[in-house]
Amino acid sequence: MARLRFETARDVFEAFQGAEHELNLEPTDDPSLDFLASLTSSGEFDKAVGFCAFLLPRREAVWWGCRSVRKFVPKRTLDEEEGIRVAEEWVREPDEERRRIALELGTRYSVKLATTHLAQAAGCAGHSFSIGAGDPIPIRPDQTARCVRSAILVAGCRLTLAERPDLMRSCLEDGAKIASDETLGP
Questions:
Q1: What is the Cα–Cα distance from 127 to 125, expressed in whole angstroms?
Q2: DSSP summary character for residue 136
Q3: What is residue 3's predicted lDDT score, i.e. its pLDDT?
Q4: What's the alpha-carbon Rg for the chain, to the nearest Å?
Q5: 31 strand-pairing partners
Q6: What is the structure's pLDDT at 126?
Q7: Please, are residues 12 and 22 in contact by the beta-carbon 8 Å criterion?
Q8: pLDDT of amino acid 1
C-alpha cells in the first residue's frame, strides 16, 4: 500500500487552510480514508467529493475527476470532449505545454460544463501562469482540488435523483482507492 499524502483529516485541513470553511467540515484526527468513508456512508457526497479532491495529489485528482465525469456524463458534446481530452492528456504527460493548453481551454469554455473545470484543474496544477508578456500570476496550491471538486459536482447535477447515490458512492470509492494505492495512479 502506498503512503497516503495526508494521514489524518486534520492534516488535509492544515495543508489547505480554506478547505475547512469551504467544505463546512470540522477537522478531526481520524485517518483521512476513514474520514472520507464516514462522509460517504452518511450521504454527505458533496463534502466527501471536496475532501477527496484535497486529499489527492494534483495529477491523481485530475485523473479521478476525469474518470468520474466520464462515468456521470457518458454522452458528451464536442466542447465537453475537448475539455476532458486536454485534461487527460495532461494527466498522461504532465508537462508545461499541456498544462498551458488546458488552462487556456479552461478559460474559454463555459463553466456550466464539468469538463471546463477539468481543463482548469489541469491548467492550475502549476505554480503560476502568464497573460501575454506580463509577470507570472501565482496559482493557489488548492486551485486544482477546487476545480476537480467543481467538475464532479457539476457533472453530478446531470444525474437523476435515483442514480445519484450509487454513482457518487462509486466515484468516492474510486477516489479512496487512488489515494491509498499507488498502482492505481494515472
A1: 7
A2: P
A3: 58
A4: 16
A5: 8
A6: 85
A7: no
A8: 37
Do residues 171 and 68 touch, judged by C-beta distance below 8 A? Answer: yes
Which regions of the chain are under pLDDT 70? Answer: 1-3, 130-133, 182-185
Grid coordinates representing 61 are 485528482
Measured CA distances, 72 to 25, 144, 149, 185 (Å): 25, 20, 14, 20
Cβ atoms 69, 118 nearer than 8 A = yes
Model pLDDT for residues 62-87, shown as the tens digit of each residue: 999 999 999 999 999 999 999 999 99
What single letter denotes the amino acid at residue 177?
K
| pLDDT tens for each residue of 121-143 | 999 998 877 666 677 788 888 99
The span from the CA of 95 to the CA of 9, in Å, is: 30
pLDDT of residue 168: 97
The number of residues making up the chain comes to: 186
160 vs 32: CA distance, rounded Å: 29
The single residue listed with the C-alpha cell 489527492 is 56
The Cα–Cα gap between 43 and 129 comes to 37
Q: Would you give the distance in Å from CA 104 to the centre of its chain?
A: 18
Helix ranges restricted to H, 109-161? 114-123, 143-156
